[in-house]
Amino acid sequence: MVDSQLPLGSPAPQDPKPPADPDTFTILIATDNHIGYLEKDPVRKDDSFKAFEEILTIARERDVDFILLGGDLFHENKPSRKCLYQTMAMLRAHCLGDRPCRMEFMSDQSENFPDRFATVNYQDPNFNVGMPIFSIHGNHDDPSGDGALCSLDILSVAGLINYFGRQSEVDDISIKPILLRKGTSRLALYGLGNVRDERLNRTFQKKRVKMFRPREGAEEWFNLLIFSTCPEKGQYPEAKAVTLSLRTAHGPTNYVPENFLDDFLQLVLWGHEHECRIDPAENSAQGFYVTQPGSSVATSLCEGEAVEKHVGILEIKGTDFQLEKIRLKTVRPFIMDEVVLKDETDLRPTDTAMVDAFLKDKVQSLIDTALREWRELNPDVPEEAEPKPLIRLKVEYSGGFTTFNPQRFGQAFVAAVANPKDILHFYRRRVPQKPSEKKQAIDTGNIDAFIPEKLENFRVEDLVTEYLSTQNLDILPENELGNAVREFVEKDENDAIKEFVEKSLFQTREVLASRQLPTEEKDDEAIREEVLNEKRKLAEKFARLPAENVAEKRRRAKTA
Questions:
Q1: Which of 34, 75, 140, 272 is catalytic?
Q2: pLDDT of 187-220, one tens digit each?
Q3: 140 given a catalytic annotation
């Protein structure tokens, strides 16, 4: 059997299932799988693969009609060959086969899948797809580089997934739904892949996001939107906190408020955020519900990642739905806690040995708790196969206490935890400043002055933009420079900065050569004014481009 050759094990035997309701869509929903995360780490290398295979196994066992993924399937923009191979092997083993697809595709496939083949994979005569997957892209696996392609394009052209939700213009977004029918139920599936939050916010504010509805019987369709972006912070105060746990550098437009979305929607599936808040929460103003499945693997040691991880089984009949959440069992246990040293009456700031012993006891207690919870969830797994847990202890050390080397501290737990080098996180509570006390400018001579404590949660383009906010670049537009640096760092586009500089200089020289500038004493000032005008035009033009087209259009401008 093919299943026996899977790199990470085979699907579990399936129990006999009752006949499926011919009028009910059954959909497995998941987001942010980040396949390939830490694939070279000796301990955590298989975590993302195991979690994704568990998701596929659940889908088979529950006999779902299809799987719906909300972006960031891969962690790296350019997955390694090993990562891509293992992912394709799992998709082939779980999704291909003779199992019949019980739903009709009603919309124009050339509009939903504007690629070379423009065909949903389960209707392609060249493939035998038993369980379709529909997926949008996130900010990790978004299109970039030559051809503006992404890893999902590779899976799509191989017939393994259906990649949709891609936009060609970010300042004029048109979302045409995938229309599916099963019996008497009709589903309009809207998808929007990740667009930079500031741009998407601006496009919504200009009312240039259009969502098309079916021509006939619009009220009979169940309308589901899936997209990958930042929600509004604190949208549901009664729910658990940390709605933006992985994105700390948010400005006033770095999110999409839910009131921007159309009120004809019944359900919004929110990707990109890693905290699991899968229970549907109602937006009473707009009349729809929101579900946030969260990630299937922890990519950061923060509060949002420590929440139990789930996927959902979404059932849709007519215009009604219900969502069943399923706990993922193969996810590495992760427990996070916090101590305030000055509140521990038995500790003295001068006795570092006592502080060290106290923290080690605390960490050991967290390890015991993590393993106990794992055993309750996986009673049939032998003890030798138990995974080492992730442990993060935040230590507030104000009141005269000092820090010590976290890596040296972690050596005592090398055999017990998966992250011995960063178990401890020392910090001091910030004292709120009055507005009059805040600095008006950044000391660019000391770049550490504006790097936040959690640097891993800070976007590189935000760092560049903040640094350049106090600089005066004469030729290069700051927003495009920040994006070029981001592509260089995050997307492994080694020529991104070089091509950006060459393109900017080339265009500026062309403009100056085409203008008849005055040959007076003030000619230098006139030239400077022309250069600044061209810089502003380039910045405005860049702001209107979709992120996935930036690198491609930069190359075209260079070779023009």
A1: 140
A2: 999 999 998 767 788 888 888 899 999 988 999 9
A3: yes
